[in-house]
Amino acid sequence: MTNLLSSNLGYPRIGEKREWKKALENYWNRTISEEELLETTKHLRLENLKKQQKAGVDLIPVGDYSFYDHVLDTSAMFGVIPERFDYNGGKVDFETYFAVARGVKNAVASVMTKWFNTNYHYIVPELENVKPTLTENYPLKYYTEAKEELGIDGKPVILGPITYLKLSKGYEEKDFPTLLQAFLPLYIQVLKELEEAGAEWVQIDEPIFGTDVSKEVLDYAHRVYAALDEATPKLNIILQTYFERVIHYKEVVELPVQGIGLDFVHGDSLASIKQHGFPNDKVLAVGVVDGRNVWRADLENRLELIKEIERYVEHDTLIIQPSCSLLHVPVTKKHEQALDPVIKDGLSFADEKLEEVVTLTKGANNKKQRITEELKASDEALTNLKQSDYRKDHDVKRNVENLREQDAKRTLPFAKRIEKQQEDLQLPVLPTTTIGSLPQTAEVKQTRRKWRNGDITNEDYEQFIKNTIKKWIAIQEDIGLDVLVHGEFERTDMVEYFGEKLNGFQVSEFGWVQSYGSRCVKPPLIVGDVSFDQPMTVKEVVYAQSLTDKPVKGMLTGPTTILNWSFVYDDVPRYTVLNQIALALKEEVKAIEEAGIKIIQVDEPALREGTPLDSAKQSEYLDAAVYGFKLTTSSVKDDTQIHTHMCYSDFHNIFNTIDALDADVLSIETSKSHGEIISTFEENTYEKEIGLGVYDIHSPRIPSKEEIKQNINRPLQSISPKQFWINPDCGLKTRQEGKTIEALKVMVQAAKEIRESKLSNLV
């Protein structure tokens, strides 16, 4: 008989009501001390462990907690701190740790980018001129804490050396084996100390094996894990993969470890096992509960999957777990009081997923009769959701079925359109603008909260929004920006806002998920057929335009970003839902244009993010994303200018996709990439207009004029000034008012000086 164990891969850090976020920001604002931060976060960490213990999870992860990002934690543990932060070795203190993530006055922050194809951002390690050393054994620290405080013999979680190095920058590919050899003794030391402390299981995360790594990397991995295995004979290492199937399955499952964790939700891991089998000397950890979406598991279906997997596994132990860390879903649904019961009953957040894992473990352990009620509840909840009125908009279904290729094409090519737009807009060379959102102060948030609570009237709230827009139109004119924005003060979030306005969406109250650092987002729930109801953004942008003679951009979030940043019901093809969203947004674009707005920005910051890791599936996704964007924007007149914005993307690999979007103006993040992204546009011909973000908005520091000039001058060496826009690298929603104004003044002044000094060369 197979012995089944329940396990978890990671738990959300943020707290049920974002207590972690508040503690961090209070520390950064100097309203609490380091000791108070440590006390608050320790309490949260222990409460998270207690929950998992109470749920009955057998293998509880420890060391998955972080004060900012687990990749940054790995860097700090190994002393990988860039020289510009004046780190002199030893334990990395909070000031240095947060400086790497957020920047300080004299040192820009490290690059931040997306964690594989999720909306979580990690801090990219910089390995140039770094000699790694073990500064502090974080996994041991948290393992000991759990054991001493709660009696939990936890499963330490460590980011694996192959993934860590492959996600790093600052070295050439030929140096990979040398760096690996430098880190190997440190990993051995971490594991030996855990072994000596009594740890039985250790989870080493290697999600990089969901990508097409080279044979050489696989060979290096075999040597590394052979060395780890030899050094720690009493330790059971689970090499954990997730997000998709393992591309080189045969090679990875033969690595010298005691267990392999596979994702059986995203990517067809079952097909790999059926084709190649599974080693009889290893424990298989099966990810059968979706760790990236919020819908209740079909327990009967999952039990059948587990039963089928068991046919191909000879080891006497099988581990049941989520498909990935629960970092990517909200904490608990118990606080959701406003949701339709049909929807709430169909949800499963982190706490509920733990219950599902434990239930499946019991049911698969030849005790199915013990979970009869759970099986019945799961089936009823999912059936009720599928049969609800949310899924019965036949007009939407028919409109999507009738779509044609020509529905997503503009009437004139870019070269002809841009002539009309330039004649109409009369903008200077190197026009300046912002990405869209402006600072949402405590007053903005408090007023919105009062309105939602019914403490002020709709009229009072709308007047407040108008007053704030008026204030910021005046500020932008005073700064000297050429193209203005209304500021998006009425919006909680660039996706949630539209989720509140479109049919087919629902919005939770506490469904927060960490995006980067203390920044949390609340993805809306796509529960049914998506359609346009009424104009969502027209009123505010029209009011803003009435206050100025300068053009004001209409601001929308694009269909692929709304899809990727929402929790989408998973019994309808995602690309069908994408086209539903695009058709709904198309109506909004028409309404904005009909209201007299000449520039409409449709942001797609998550376009690259959702790309499948499996290269065989990427073309289909990118083609669908392009079609969705063009379907949204193609109905406008030739003299209406379409902008889009993207951030934190590997643009080199999707350059052709970006070009195919056929947006008139593209703005992208470049300031934190230290020139890597700019090189993509230097190496390729891009004929449309482009704004390469000239300063990093995620850092609290104000950039110098010289720094911005440098960021402007480099692309001007290969991009025509007639194409080039000047803008920050992202929206300014989370920034402080004063620092935002000062930074924008510096940006505009830098642009003006370059424009004036080189004017004879720019035309």
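The above is record 1. Record 2 follows with the same two-line structure.
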Amino acid sequence: MTDTTPATTRPTGTQPAEAQPAETPAAVVPLPVTAVTCLEDRAHVERTATVELAAGVRRLRLGPISALAVDRTLRAEATGGTARVLDARVVRTWTPRAPLPPTDRDSELRRRVHALEEQQRAETRARERLEARLALLSQLAADLLREVGEGAGRGELEPARWTRELDRIDSERETHGERLRASRARLETLGEELAAARRALDTGEVEPPELLAHVEVTVEADEAGPAKLLVGHLTPCALWRPAYRATLSGERLLLETGAVVWQRTGEDWSGVRLTFSTARSALASEPPRLTEDSLSLRERTSEERRTVEVELREEEIGSTGPSADGLPGVDDGGEVRVLRAPSPASVPSDGRAHRIPLSSFDTAAGSEFGSAPELSPLVTRVVRFRNDAGHALLAGPVELVQGSGFTGRGELRFTAPGAPAELAFGSSDAYRVVRETEESRGSAGITQRTVVTRTVRVHLSRFSGPEDVDEQVVAVRERIPVSEVSSVEVKLRKEACSPPPDELDAEGIVRWDVPMPPGSRRTLTLVYEVSAASKVAGL
């Protein structure tokens, strides 16, 4: 069975020669993979072959290639001569394997799997015979008991024969029942051994493919000589994701960028040039459809004029990033990014993760201990550095390494070249954070404005050993609401805060830089007021 869906590649203005029919392809010309561009969920494979051509039209069979090649993306061209590619197509051939026993050329593991399968089949037949024998003995016992009942009713008593037959049936049932239990136990053991052997066989050996694909190209040459054929196509079952390794040594950070590649295309990529792109060729490029949107005006009711509805909501400070559902996509900041491996690499077709190094840089890094008590009671060490890689750092997981070795995994967000970035190197067990909140409500002024006063207290403690003598600064961050309407005002009462905060930004984030000597305790107090006019509802 063959699939000859054509993917024609023909230079402009070139027509196939009709006077000279193409030759039937003879030997298969190898067509190895020389370059691969890994996309987010597929790969573009480039292949190269050098052939000797005679003048005229000739058909060549190149390959084999992956049977997963997408026919409509097949492109072929000839370089280095006067040859031209008139037609190119993918031809697939299915050759089922015959159920033959392994030979001496097969591995010991494959022969063991075959032997276990034979033993399992033989033991299954023995179990079926035992089950049939026990069923026959059960039927014989039932017939004998019926005969005993009928004979006793007619007065024909044969107790000696009945006793002898029942004893013989019970003895055989017990013997065959024990054999059946032993057979089932052997079958269970054989099943476990066979499953383990098959897993080892799947891991250590690869079955030859039943579906093979080749590329048939029709080439026209003006004169005899060598020609270089370039063939490219897309293939599924291949993807990549960025990954990093950060090593912190004092005030220096070494960040190594890599690409993790998975592929199960059916052929190995050996010594190929790897390129990693964030282009999404599968996304449609059609503009959105325009629909009518009707707007209407109406007079506000008297109730609506007297009342302003407000509500408190959580607002995340926006940043573009990959989806958290399932395997995250590649976050490229909205622009296609292309990364190239510095040297040829090999990726086997085993479906496993293979890491390809891309770049690395060493830069100065500053660190601080940070705490956000509203979100977490932990104090985390945060390292800040500048992206000196020369290219954008895509969002991805980071292996964190310090002087003591591997310390955990973190996450790096998308970072443009030269932009600052930060990494969290885990929490510190030497700190404890307790957060308390209070709220009071009242009114002030002739206008009867509603005033809500909130008090937040953060208790920060440091537990240190005898060897800890250095003072550490902990950056504690809290937040206050930010009003979007003039009827609601938010005021930070600095005179009531203890100590006064060091910084308050436009997003409502309040920050203290708290020095913490060994064994010290600190209490931070934050007080702010939310006042609203009398017509405000929902606060």
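Residues 470 and 517 are 7 Å apart (CA to CA).
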